[in-house]
Amino acid sequence: MMKSLIKILLIEDDAQDANIMKLRLERAPNFNHTLEHTTRLENAIERISRGNIDVILTDLILPDSEAKNTISKLKDKAPHIPILVLTGIDDENLEIEFIRSGIEAYLLKSELGQSSLVRMIRYAVERNQLVKELQGKSDDLNRLVLLDSLTELLNRRGFETILTRELAWSRRYKTPLSAFIIQIDDISTTDQTSKELILKHASKTLQNSLRTTDYIARLSDREFMILLPHTKPDPHIKITKRLQTAFKNQPVCFPTGSVILKTIIGSYPIADPEQSEEQIIKAIYASLTTGQKEHKKSMTARK
Positions modified as 4-aspartylphosphate (predicted)? Predict the structure, then answer.
């Protein structure tokens, strides 16, 4: 359930930009919030230490900190508070790096309107509540219901739970949503011990290759599914290549030697969040057909 009052910490040293943000939030209809403003990172960290903050809005360049140092210190001092970067730096590589480090969003000041700002804040706070809820389910029964015992990833039910919530947010906040499916090439003849080693290795490879805000689920002995919030169709090819490269560069090690896992990857941009969960999961599986064709094409080219 959405918090009735959202407590915001704004870290911005440019007085004009800070006033613009304050006015946008004050004039937003039905947006119940409080806002505290500071111009320096050290003051922000002191305020964070006293607690009772729901979301952080921060510029990258501050009088006492710059870019990577700003985000690193905030993540260290506020690991469970969503961080939205507000910046004038239009740098795709920097955006990817920060998103992968765990910030909620990288927003350009020049493109940020009132409705999109409020929408992103609400989404970040509500999503953070869900993450805390899932992390709090530490008893054996809830772990059995939502998590895969071998890899500690989501299981099918956990994935469907997240998908339902993300679809609702996508409809409400008009945010893009994408999904990927990764199929490990046939390991059905592998003994159980080796199979478990492969699955654990694959899960770690995926976790190291994706953002901390992405959801990964193990669906079977061969298949993993990924849900990527705030992801448009444009970067799908890049993400696919990144995953392929990760599996190629990180072979699984057995006592008898190392093996590169062969994967088939499909992707599906969820353009219509009004689709049912069942329709979307079917479409994600159907995307494997394209992935299989690409896989066969690459295998033929190597011969």
Answer: 59
Other C-beta atoms closer than 10 Å to the C-beta of 212 total: 13
Give the torsion through C-alpha atoms of 282, 288, 290, 293, to 10 deg: -150
pTM of the model: 0.75
CA 261, 248, 201, 157 dihedral sign is negative
All residue ranges of the chain with pLDDT < 70 are 1-3, 134-144, 186-190, 291-303
Delimit the domains of the chain by residue range: 6-132, 149-302
State the pLDDT at residue 143: 58
Residues 6, 11, 13, 18, Cα dihedral to 10°: -20
Cα separation, 133 vs 146, whole angstroms: 12
CATH class of 149-302: alpha beta
Q: What does the pLDDT read at residue 226?
A: 97
